[in-house]
Amino acid sequence: MEAANGLPSAEELMELVNKQDSVIECLQEKLDISNEQVRLFREAEEKRRHSENESSEIVVAAEQRISSAMAAVQSLKTQNEKLENELEKLSKITEQEKPVPSVIQLRNRVKELEFNLVREQRAAANLQNEVAFQKRRVDQLQSELDACHKKSASVAYSLSSKLDESVKELIELKIKYQSGLNERDQIASELGGKVEASRRPPEEEGEQVQQLLKDQCHLIDALREESKLLLCQLESERKKYRYGTYQ
User: What sections of the sequence does the record tag as coiled-coil (predicted)?
Assistant: First the structure.
């Protein structure tokens, strides 16, 4: 409805304000979605430290979107306040018959706001889809990380058990070797003048000790090789996981 002198009516200005409010509500919804996205990635960042760089970049991008959305909301709020001021002045302008913007301009402004509203609604929908996708990605990365941790723990436990067995065998070997030395010293003491001869361990005992030492060396070498293979495997898994994270 137009005023009697062809000026915009209070209803038309009120409609313009309502359109502006709709755009603000849409941007507020978009802001809430962005906040939810930031929350999700911060939680994911705490759970998976190995993908910290990726999460940080996503969080920074989301925060930038939030800043842009907040700036847009603030801009629209400012425009809305101006329109409300125009609405408050309308009655005075009508009474004093002062010139105001034409109805056509206001209607064009309403159409522009409707277009902006549709655009922001689409942007909000796209952002919501992106949040859902990133949430699925976080869940997938968490599952991969858990599997990697379980595998590493299993391998580490196996290696630890083998090292414990090796230490146990070394202790037993040391005891046997010390026993041989004690027996040798006892023989040397009994033989008196034949100390030098008695210091040589019995041939059979010497062969047994040498064989034990040889077997233990082989075991240690095998453990070293297995440790190298384990380290290579863990490094490969780490590179594979990191490569998969940045895809």
Answer: 10-151
Residue 163, pLDDT score: 66
Tokens coding 204: 């059979």
Residue pLDDT, tens place only, 205-227:
566 666 766 776 676 667 667 66
pLDDT higher than 60, residue 77: yes
Measured between alpha carbons, how far is residue 104 from residues 76, 78, 79, 99 in Å? 21, 22, 18, 14
Rounded to the nearest angstrom, the gap between the alpha carbon of residue 118 and the centroid of all alpha carbons in its chain is 33
Rounded Cα gap, residues 157 and 163, in angstroms: 10
Q: Model-level pTM greater than 0.70?
A: no
Residue 1 to residue 7: CA distance in whole angstroms: 9
Angle at 12 between CA 6 and CA 18, to 5 degrees: 165
The answer to whether residues 34 and 65 touch, using CB atoms and an 8 Å cutoff, is: yes
Q: Are 31 and 69 in contact (CB under 8 A)?
A: yes
